[in-house]
Amino acid sequence: MKKAVLGRGLKALIPEKEEGRIHMISVSEIQPGTHQARKSFNADSITSLAETLKQDGIIQPLVVSPSGTGWKLIAGERRLRAAKIAGFKKVPVTIKDTDEASAAFISLIENLQREDLNPLDEASGLEALMKKFSLTQEAVAERVGKSRSTVANTLRLLKFPEDIVLALGEGKISEGHARALSIIKDPRKRKHIIHRIINEHLSVREIEFLSSGKKTGPKSRQVSAEIREIAEKLESSLSTKVEVKANKKNQGHIKIHFFSSDELDRLIKRLSR
After folding, report:
1. Looking at the domain that runs over 10-117, which CATH code has it been given?
2. How confident is the model at residue 75 (pLDDT cuts 50, 70, 90)?
3. Cβ-proximal residues to 221 (8 Å cutoff; 6+ apart), any chain
4. Active site annotation includes 142
5. Taking Cα atoms as reference points, which of 59, 92, 63, 96 lies closest to residue 77?
6. Which of 77, 110, 206, 232 is catalytic?
7. What gap in Å lies between CA 178 and CA 161, rounded to an integer?
8. In sequence order, which ranges of the chain are alpha helices (DSSP H)?
């Protein structure tokens, strides 16, 4: 027999012995989260995820918390959107009866751990947490498992010129591109180079040459699209400057830059995983 309801809150909705387990909850009972770090959702990506869910189901449960007579989403908005498209009536969830600050951090951390969060969304999420809960960079860094310098560098993206922020937010340039572009003061020159990044797939190294006023040498122009793509993916993943050089025999080296002892520690931990 079910236990008697023990009052309002989590125990009023789920029997005590069921806390911490996975539950099937109606999609219509889940309200959107108020602390979603991800601001942009690619429609094609969501549709593709919906097709995957139809075949394999939802492997990773959503995270929700009690809200009135229903539930508020803490983590898993992409999965929820895809589940609706796929026609799911119920989805698997885990329940956390938590305060607003903790819910905000869980939402942000869940996105950060996926490592596909737009860097601008990450910066906006960190800034929102700091303002809403009056937190320092050190406090936020500790909660999200990053160094203070990494948090500071991420937040600095929000202060870049509007054209850089827009291109970064739309995924047209990488974080490495954005940092290289930020030293260019002439808006017309920036706009021209952003256009070239999009159409010519210029590497971060090439942007640094252009930003410094030097002309890109012939060797730099001969770098293959594949090598440029590898460098950009590494820069995006590691959030730092990366140089990849290779010759015609596919021999070369990868150089990873760091600018503080904290950043070196972060890179070592990331690479060791």
Report:
1. 3.90.1530.30
2. confident
3. none
4. no
5. 63
6. 77
7. 10
8. 10-13, 43-56, 77-86, 100-114, 119-133, 137-144, 148-156, 162-169, 175-181, 187-200, 204-211, 218-221, 225-238, 261-272
**Which tens digits make up the pLDDT trace of 154-183?**
899 999 999 999 998 888 888 889 988 998
Q: What is the pTM of this model?
A: 0.50
Neighbouring residues of 204: CB distance < 8 A, sequence distance ≥ 6: 174, 176, 177, 180, 231, 232, 235, 241, 242
**Encoding tokens for residue 253?**
């080296």
Q: Which residue ranges make up each domain of the chain?
A: 10-117, 160-272
In three-state secondary structure terms, 172 is coil
190-244 tens-digit pLDDT: 998 898 888 888 888 888 877 766 554 544 444 566 777 788 788 878 878 888 8
Cα separation, 140 vs 154, in Å, equals 12
Of the candidates 38, 183, 214, 61, the residue with the CA atom closest to the CA atom of residue 109 = 38
Distances (CA, A) of 34 to 64, 123, 203: 12, 17, 37
Residue 253 phi, psi dihedral angles, 5° rounding: -155, 160
Instruction: Provide mean pLDDT across the span 147-157.
Output: 89
Interatomic CA distance for residues 100 and 106, integer angstroms: 10
